[in-house]
Design goal:
It is a single chain. The protein is of the alpha+beta class. The strands form three sheets. Strands 7-6-5-4-8 form a five-stranded antiparallel beta sheet. A four-stranded antiparallel beta sheet has the order 10-11-9-12. A three-stranded antiparallel beta sheet has the order 1-3-2. The protein is elongated, with a radius of gyration of 28 Å. The chain starts with a helix and ends with a helix.
Length: about 325
């Protein structure tokens, strides 16, 4: 490829990034004078690429809005980033389930890559292993994700059809505050005006989302991520557990994250019982209690079980088993 043609394609790649690029900036990036930049821009226009000239102090060149580039020009690093992003997104559930969009997009990119680069990417993708299971089953549909995201951005109500974990179906109006990706799942948090409460919904359980007329003002206070984590930690389960733990909230959350437990620190200077220190109140909900004694032991902090009594018995039994193991001769 001759240098002028290579530079014309480089100019096209620079304009593809978006926004207006000044003639001086383009000349510096291409290593030519400003007059040559204008000539290269004319070459692109001759090729039916809609390059627009922008006048003014910050004028220069840009591509017409909505123009879709026919050639795909990616460096080795860019191609690797795109393909790894598609693979990782599909594995973690952060892509949509609309057909096989991720696979077809990757295939299209692969078809236009040089054979040398394709073989190198095959080596990376072929040797890559994931320690976590695939999250594809919990991925939302694009037909749901896009209208909900638009409603969040423009503060507009949206009507959703939702299937709860127990199979119950409902149709409701939601004032969505934000989208949150957590542990391989997508969530939307917002207000349900019919009941006047904040709610969190899994996007993969929404079968239909339609924008509604009107608008709303997002409330002040916790952000979407904090609302989702609090909602997960306070969701109804079989057991409601209340603990007091002697330690800081940061120490406790290292083993009991925000999606699992709500940690409340006491007012400054307050202590509990005869033990001086900083006692936090911890509330969590669980379907089973048998896993909690080991987690509480891993805190390596003094704690007291307020309820349920069943957990006290499980902790005592766990401690006895540890004591027997510690005394057992090898």
């Amino acid at each position: 490829m001759t240098r002028p043609i290579a530079r014309v394609l480089t100019l096209l790649e620079l304009l593809q990034v978006g926004d207006v690029r000044t003639v001086a900036e383009l000349a510096d990036r291409l290593g030519v004078d400003e007059r040559t930049v204008r000539r290269y821009a004319d070459h692109l226009v001759d090729l039916d690429v809609p390059v627009e000239s922008v006048r003014g102090r910050y004028g220069g060149y840009r591509l017409a809005p909505g123009y879709r580039m026919p050639p795909l020009m990616l460096s080795d690093d860019e191609a690797l980033a795109v393909l790894l992003g598609l693979v990782a997104g599909r594995r973690t559930g952060l892509t949509t389930t609309a057909g096989t969009a991720g696979e077809t997009a990757a295939a299209k990119i692969r078809r236009v890559l040089p054979a040398r680069l394709g073989r190198r990417l095959d080596a990376v993708l072929g040797s890559l292993a994931f320690t976590a299971p695939s999250g594809e089953e919990a991925a939302p549909k694009a037909a749901v994700l896009l209208p909900v995201a638009d409603a969040v951005r423009h503060h507009r109500p949206v009507s959703i059809r939702y299937t709860a974990a127990d199979g119950r179906r409902s149709e409701r109006t939601l004032h969505p505050y934000g989208l949150v990706a957590h542990s391989g799942r997508w969530y939307v948090t917002g207000a349900d005006p019919a009941i006047g409460e904040h709610r969190t919904f899994r996007l993969d359980r929404i079968t239909d989302a339609r924008p509604l007329p009107g608008s709303f003002e997002p409330p002040e206070g916790p952000g979407p991520a904090e609302r989702v984590l609090t909602g997960l930690a306070t969701a109804p389960y079989r057991h409601e557990v209340v603990l007091r733990v002697l330690g800081t909230a940061e120490q406790i959350r290292s083993r009991l994250p925000a999606a699992l437990a709500v940690v409340t620190e006491p007012p400054a200077g307050e202590s509990a019982g005869a033990d001086p220190g900083h006692w936090c109140r911890v509330e969590l909900r669980a379907e089973r209690l048998d896993w909690l004694p080991a987690v509480l032991a891993s805190l390596d902090l003094p704690f007291a079980v307020e309820r349920p009594d069943e957990l006290r018995d499980l902790v005592a039994g766990f401690a006895e088993r540890l004591m027997r193991s510690a005394r057992r001769e090898p």
